[in-house]
Amino acid sequence: MLNKISYKLMTVVGGVAALVLGLFAYLILGAYQQRLIGGLEQTAEQLSETVKRSTRYEMLLNQRESVHEIINTIGAQTGIDRVRIFNKDGEVIYSSDSLDIGGMVDKDTEACYACHAADQPLVSLPIFARTRIFNGGDGQRILGIINPINNEPGCWQSSCHAHDPEQTVLGVLDITMPLDAVDREKRDSEVQMLLLTLLAVAGISLLIYWLTGRIVLKPVGQIVDATERVAAGDLTHPIPIKQDDEIGQLARSFNDMTRKLSEAQRQLFQSDKLASVGRLAAGVAHEINNPLTGVLTYSSLLLNSADEYPALKEDLEVIVRETKRCRDIVRSLLDFSRQSSSTRHQIDLNEAVHNAVRIVHNQLSLHKVRLVLDLQQDLPSVYADHSRIEQVLVNLLVNAGDAMPKDGGTVTLETALMPDDEPAGRYVRLVARDTGGGISAEDRTKIFEPFFTTKGQKGTGLGLAIVWGIIEEHEGRITVDSTLGEGTTFTIMLPVAGPAPPTAHGNDVHHPDRR
């Protein structure tokens, strides 16, 4: 079950989505934390400037108690760890923590490294260079900001505690603030982002699973079911096509394949059946041909001598007529079994059409049938037996004439060169179309079977079977399309023999009287 495409896609897409969303979450949380710390730095900077301005006057007057009071008051506020002031030597002069007063601060520690380089204090630094983040004694993260106290004219001109005018920095104001609130908000944001990422990955995975099942798995399942039916021998199960994408194209290709397989199976079955019936017909024809010839000979001799016996003569005429009918059937059986030799060479299909028309012209005229020829000029030659192709045409024309109503109709013969898109080469197409009564859908599946006829006692049922055999022998194809009450169309495809000359289309419409 885990080998299904949907699970594979869901796993891959879910993994990619988790990776991408996790990377975005990491970047967003990092930027968010920097923004929080940046805001806290701005607050610390403003606070340090406030402390400097608040203690400036007291420092100028050297009122240490007032400075201590201000620093203690500010240091006691929520969100502030300590407030300290170092002198130029690193001694803690003021601090909100009384234990720090008088202590020394190493200039190489995090509180002093930004202002000193090779023991030379810098005059001014940007805010990001004056802040640092370090871990307190209890593992708590702390943000510290230092603010240099510059030597102003009032400091070195004052009479109470004059400073050297060359000294630029008198000391440093250091304020530290805990980052508990920032870290807590960061953890909350991480949890929220993790939950949102999991929900997004789950939603995307479920969506992919649903879409894959609907768009891919369902039609693929139909194709798999159809292939199993084909493997079981059922070539009549089409796949319903509801898509116009690659899967829809695959379904259409599969339906075309099954249709062609069904046609090939039918042709193979028909060929096998024709071969079996042909062998049987050949044996039967040979067995009854000699006795039948004897019956016809003796009955003909008796008929010539029976002028004085009218009743006997009438009986003999029936025997001769029915014997000749049996002889025609035997001849058809021999033709069907392909006992006669076949000589194939390059022939002009249009010439074969004209010859067949001459043979059946009188018979079609009796049926009031109008014959129309629409033949392409300069048609390429086909490699065939001229007499057998004429036999095919005669059979089709006779059948068309027999299918006409009493008031007649029209039979059209067309020839044309097919476009050069066949995988096996180019073909010449021959179409025989009539306006007769048509053939029912049920009968269309049987018309090429031996001994099947729609003419009753008038036909032997071998004509179209012989036509099928001849076309198959010439490596061609024959199809039929018919509508009851409208007519029937037979289409024959014969392969072109060798290179084809340039084609020139034209309509050559003839009536039998003007051939």
Name some characteristics of this structure.
single chain; 515 residues; alpha+beta; Beta-Lactamase; Heat Shock Protein 90; 3 domains; 5-stranded antiparallel β-sheet; 5-stranded mixed β-sheet; 10 helices; 14 strands
Verbal overview:
This protein has helices at residues 5-60, 64-75, 153-157, 180-231, 246-304, 310-336, 349-366, 386-402, 441-444, 463-473, and strands spanning 82-87, 92-95, 116-117, 120-121, 131-135, 141-150, 169-178, 345-347, 369-375, 382-384, 409-417, 427-434, 477-483, 487-495. The chain has 3 domains: 5-184, 2-Layer Sandwich (Beta-Lactamase), CATH 3.30.450; 235-340, Helix Hairpins (Orthogonal Bundle), CATH 1.10.287; 344-514, 2-Layer Sandwich (Heat Shock Protein 90), CATH 3.30.565.10. Helix 1 packs antiparallel against helix 4. A 5-stranded antiparallel sheet has the order 2-1-7-6-5. Strands 9-11-12-14-13 form a 5-stranded mixed sheet, covered by helices on one side. It has a two-stranded antiparallel ribbon with strand order 3-4. By secondary structure, it is α+β, with helices and mostly antiparallel strands. It is built from 10 helices and 14 strands.
